[in-house]
Amino acid sequence: MNHEHNTSLADARRIIAAGEAKATEIGQPMNIAVVDVGGNLIAHARMDAAWIGSIDIAINKAFTARMFDLATADLAKQAQPGSQFYGIDQSNNGRVMIFAGGIPLVRNDEIIGAVGVSGGEGKQDQAVAEAAAAAL
After folding, report:
1. pLDDT 10s digits, 78-89
2. Containing H/E element for 106?
3. Which of 19, 58, 88, 101 suits a disulfide with 125, CB 3.0-4.6 Å?
4. If 0-12 CB within 10 Å is exposed, 13-18 middle and 19+ buried, where does residue 3 land?
5. Cα angle: 95, vertex 96, 97; to 5 degrees
6. Which of 9, 72, 76 shows the shortest CA–CA distance to 36?
7. Residue 4: pLDDT band by 50, 70, 90 thresholds?
8. Closest residue by Cα to residue 69 from 35, 120, 18, 118
9. Which domains does the chain have, with CATH numbers?
10. What percent of the chain stands above pLDDT 70?
11. Which regions form coiled coils (predicted)?
12. CA 17, CA 135: separation in Å to the nearest integer?
């Protein structure tokens, strides 16, 4: 596969490093996961003292952002009772996460993967994910 149309391991390492830097800056250890264009895990890092339960959540936030090409925070707004995507979190064998912290990765106006962050409050997860994605 052409590197231009997919997230590489080098990209993933750079994205994770940027996320770690932001998490350190805000004082919240995080799990940071990067998936490729197909939603498959490329790399994951659990910072020291980050919640073990958030490993799965970070990976699935990245998966969700790629599967729907939408930030998980935006999907969450549309997944509330009475909204068009209510119940979507039950799809894909329960892998769909409707918490902030998953962001598609874009290169040349094309989605090439996603990053997922979990371990803090939603606004913290989102801030770390944004910093991580910006490193692409």
Report:
1. 999 999 999 999
2. strand 102-107
3. 101
4. exposed
5. 110
6. 9
7. confident
8. 35
9. 3-134 (3.30.450.150)
10. 98
11. none
12. 9
The tens digit of pLDDT for each residue in 38-77 reads 999 999 999 999 999 999 999 999 999 999 999 999 999 9
- Mapping DSSP onto H, E and C, the string for 38-94 reads CCCEEEEEECCCCCCCHHHHHHHHHHHHHHHCCCHHHHHHHCCCCCCCCCHHHCHHH
How would you label 48-67 residue by residue, b for 16+ Cβ within 10 Å and e otherwise? eebeeebbebbbbbbbbbbb
Assess contact for 28 and 19: CB atoms under 8 A: no
Torsion of CA 37, 43, 48, 51, to 10 degrees: 50
Residue labelled with tokens 């149309």? 5
For residue 51, the one-letter residue type is W
As a whole number of angstroms, the distance between CA 133 and CA 112 comes to: 11
pLDDT value, residue 2: 58
